[in-house]
Amino acid sequence: MEITQLSKIIGILHRRFQTMISHELDFPALSTTNANFLLFISEHDHITAKQLSNELVINKGLVSREMTRLEAAGYITRQADTADHRITWITLTQTGQETAVAVRTIMTSIWQEVLTTTPEADVLATYGHLAEWGHQADRLAVQKRQASEKDSSIH
């Protein structure tokens, strides 16, 4: 197997899931992109757009646009930090919480259908590998960024 095939398969799997999920979503102003944001926010009590951007490795501009859409649709609220007004906390509204539960149900159902013939031990092993590869990629990205910054400071 050529290693680039792994990247191709992961990309295709992600896009297929996005397409399947988009057919199931029937909520005002909710896309597969901001539905993923909604789920991530639901897993954290308070989060900032910067944290969301960093954790999901998503462009800050896209996060900002999607937060505006989610807020306008009534899924989230944004509140300035009382101690530091440069920080804005994002939280789910009741509608956002209910929608996140529905989205999680949709995603779980699709995954269960896809993985129906895969033994649980294989699913857990694959999850472990993907999580570790994600951590390794994070470390590599930091190293490469630091090397790039060092090179640009020399020139």
UniProtKB/TrEMBL annotation:
- Is Chloroplast included in the keywords of this UniProt record? no
Q: Name one GO molecular function term.
A: DNA-binding transcription factor activity
Q: Which residues form the HTH marR-type domain?
A: 1-142
> Which keywords fit this entry according to its UniProt record?
DNA-binding, Transcription, Transcription regulation
Recorded superkingdom? Bacteria
Protein name per the record? HTH marR-type domain-containing protein
Biological source species = Levilactobacillus senmaizukei DSM 21775 = NBRC 103853
